[in-house]
Write a structure and sequence with these properties.
Length: 204
């Protein structure tokens, strides 16, 4: 299996003579010109900020439309980046759950994440402080989607619960439509809201 040229996660690739179509679990579905991959991505001309925003646009338009509108080329990638919108908080939760599910295939095995500064970028926190990440992971665990948030130097691990695994399976199902995604957003949001209410009521 090939790797996504935007985020490096394993992805399905359908190659043509002049372009490649990628289906990435983290970013989504998009087509990139081979010339752009060679002259912009592989040459190092694409900045980290541009890469993050491209990932965000691909993810948003994949969820909304089934894939990125237009091909990523030398003359189009800056205009595509300009369409970037920061993800919702629930969108970040969903990406986190999908990534944790991708990192382990055995029930009960920990998903070990890379250093938090890198992970913060992968979750598209944009200009938010990467130090917010532990609080974010605590909220995901408190809502019942994962357990055992264990920092290990600059890395940390979580174990997805049955609830988290079910959410990951439903989010990654090929037939998940817009209506089901909205329902999943509501279910995830209610879980997070319940955790916030319990946390606020707990004496400190």
């Amino acid at each position: 299996m090939k790797k996504c040229v935007l985020c490096g996660v394993a992805a399905d690739e359908l190659g043509r003579a002049d372009a490649c179509e990628y289906v990435c679990e983290a970013c989504g579905t998009y087509t990139a010109a081979r010339y752009w991959i060679t002259t912009v991505v592989e040459s190092g001309a694409l900045t980290i900020e541009q890469r993050i925003k491209l990932c965000g646009v691909v993810r948003f338009e994949t969820d909304r439309d089934g894939g990125l509108k237009g091909e990523i080329r030398n003359d189009s990638y800056e205009a595509i980046i300009a369409r970037h919108q920061p993800p919702t908080r629930l969108g970040q939760v969903h990406r986190f759950i999908l990534r944790a599910n991708k990192l382990t295939r055995d029930f009960g095995a920990p998903a070990v994440f890379a250093p938090s500064s890198r992970l913060a970028r992968e979750l598209y926190f944009d200009d938010r402080n990467p130090n917010d990440l532990p609080r974010f992971v605590d909220a995901v665990c408190g809502a019942g989607f994962a357990e055992e948030h264990k920092p290990n130097g600059k890395s940390f691990s979580v174990v997805l619960t049955i609830k988290g695994l079910r959410l990951a399976d439903r989010l990654s199902a090929p037939g998940t439509g817009a209506g089901e995604k909205i329902r999943l957003l509501m279910v995830t949001g209610m879980g997070l809201q319940r955790w916030r209410r319990r946390a606020a009521a707990t004496p400190r």
